[in-house]
Write a structure and sequence with these properties.
This protein is α+β, with helices and mostly antiparallel strands. It folds into two domains: about 120 residues, Glutamine synthetase, N-terminal domain (Ubiquitin-like (UB roll), Roll), CATH 3.10.20.70; about 325 residues, Creatine Kinase, Chain A, domain 2 (2-Layer Sandwich). It is built from 13 helices and 14 strands. Strands 7, 8, 9, 10, 11, 12, 13 and 14 form an eight-stranded mixed beta sheet that branches. Strands 1, 2, 3, 4, 5 and 6 form a six-stranded mixed beta sheet that branches. Helix 5 crosses helix 6, helix 7 crosses helix 10 and helix 10 packs antiparallel against helix 12. The longest helix is centred in the middle third of the chain and has 21 residues. The N and C termini lie far apart (about 75 Å). The N terminus is likely disordered.
């Protein structure tokens, strides 16, 4: 037996057993998801792992406050103002998994950042979600969650002006240019990629369920199975996203979760499916379309009420707002309905016992922990308030409801002014995330774009 396949006594049993399966593992990636869902951290040798489990590893607290470009947002107060302090980050038991796409045996492990007193740092996105889940636990309820992620497979080479291109079909050698939604031939043509992702998911114990060709050339969706642990469901999404990106790169492509990479093609969404179980394991949403249960209606009403306050968590970036266009299966309202993809809160076709809400607002560019936290917080508030969501929409919601016009600045203002956000997620998270997004918006709008030169340079 290779020396480094022998589990160390300092590891939790489940992580020791997992490490034992990764024969010859010499390196481990320690991963801390930031506010944008980007993975930051350190790569350590196998020999250092026991020390990390015993003492943790120090990382700058400012990592939580980094923007999408990797710069610290000083307005959060986590940078120079506190001397760019380190905080101890500890391994999360049960999250050690192989890095299945590397030729050299490696592992990866999620970290949790502590505050100055040794408790959990409450603004950490994973902790934000745990806080919301605890609210269900306190009521004797268990949310069951599944995450759906849409993404594009793009050519690794950009155009001469730096724009993305759809990928070249591996089977035909021709660049993808047409939409064939749910087309099985697309899955066949990209079988090398989908097989590699499936293998990585099995190795990492990611419960991937279904892959489909989506509503644009080179766009795909991979669904994850429902989990009775909402935090674990989002861990799965984080690991899946990392695997998809790495495998695409290995095969000469870019996997992009950008919300709207092409103006004339469908955007990519992140759909969150939720049902809620009582202490006896019964689904409290159980009903039929002709007789919606009160609990289902209350949950939907809570999602509607929380929508404006949480929109920044669903649409965190400038490009997020390009996705909200008419007739693209993206919700432009807060309405709901059964088996209807034109609404925001869809109740998928199901037998009564498995009724669930599919929340369709968020883009694939959002942080799964924060999106799920926002969805669950809305449901929980709805169960408390017992509000009325209005009638379920039948038919085309775009024609029956007032369409929402979204602007990044407005969603930042709504988020920062919201008492619901403070109560549901904590004042510290609200401050850090709000300041981070405000700085991102201001930085974005200081740039002069090519379009501005095209429109204004000679004309005005």
């Amino acid at each position: 037996m290779p020396l480094h396949s022998i589990p160390a006594p300092g590891l939790p049993d489940e992580d020791a057993a997992e490490l034992h399966q990764i024969a010859g593992c010499e390196m481990i990636d320690l991963l801390l998801p930031d506010m944008n869902g980007l993975l930051r951290g350190k790569r350590i040798t196998r020999d250092a792992l026991e020390k990390v489990y015993a003492n943790g590893v120090c990382l700058p607290m400012s990592l939580i406050a980094t923007d999408i470009t990797g710069n610290t947002v000083e307005e959060t107060g986590l940078g120079y103002a506190i001397g760019d302090e380190d905080r101890i980050c500890r391994p999360i038991p049960g999250t050690l998994r192989p890095i299945a796409w590397q030729e050299r045996p490696m592992a990866q492990l999620l970290l949790n950042m502590e505050d100055a007193n040794g408790g959990a740092f409450e603004a950490n996105p994973r902790e934000v979600l745990k806080r919301v889940v605890q609210g269900f636990t306190d009521r004797g309820l268990t949310p069951v969650v599944a995450v759906e992620l849409e993404f594009y497979l793009l050519d690794a080479e950009l155009t001469v002006d730096g724009r993305p291109q759809t990928s070249i079909n591996p089977a035909t050698g021709v660049r993808n240019a047409t939409t064939q939604v749910y087309y099985m031939q697309d899955l066949n043509d990209y079988q090398q990629f989908t097989d590699a992702v499936a293998d990585a998911c099995r190795a990492q114990q990611i419960p991937a369920d279904t892959a489909v060709a989506e509503y644009a050339p080179g766009q795909f969706e991979i669904n994850l199975k429902h989990r009775s642990d909402a935090v674990l469901a989002c861990d799965d999404a984080i690991f899946l996203k990392r695997a998809i990106k790495a495998i695409a790169e290995d095969q000469g492509m870019i996997a992009s979760f950008m919300a709207k990479p092409f103006v004339d093609q469908a955007g990519s969404g992140m759909h969150i499916h939720v049902s809620v179980l009582d202490q006896d394991g019964n689904n409290i949403f159980a009903c039929t379309p002709d007789a919606p249960s009160d609990t289902l209606r209350h949950a939907v009403a809570g999602l509607q009420k929380a929508s404006a306050s949480c929109m920044l968590m669903f649409a965190p970036h400038a490009n997020s707002y390009r996705r909200f266009v008419l007739n693209a299966f993206v919700p432009l309202n807060d309405c709901w309905g059964f088996n209807n993809r034109t609404v925001a809160m869809r109740i998928p076709h199901s037998d009564p016992a498995n009724i669930r809400v599919e929340h369709r607002i968020a883009g694939a560019d959002a942080n799964p922990y924060l999106v799920t936290a926002a969805v669950l917080a809305g449901i929980l508030q709805g169960l408390k308030d017992k509000g009325d969501p209005g009638p379920a929409i039948v038919g085309n919601a775009y024609e029956q409801t007032e369409q929402r016009t979204l602007f990044w600045r407005d969603t930042i203002n709504d988020f920062m002014a919201s008492s619901f956000v403070t109560e549901a997620f904590g004042a510290q998270f609200k401050h850090i995330f709000g300041q981070q997004k405000l700085k991102e918006m201001r930085s974005f709008y200081t740039e002069v774009t090519t379009l501005e030169y095209d429109w204004y340079l000679r004309q005005v």
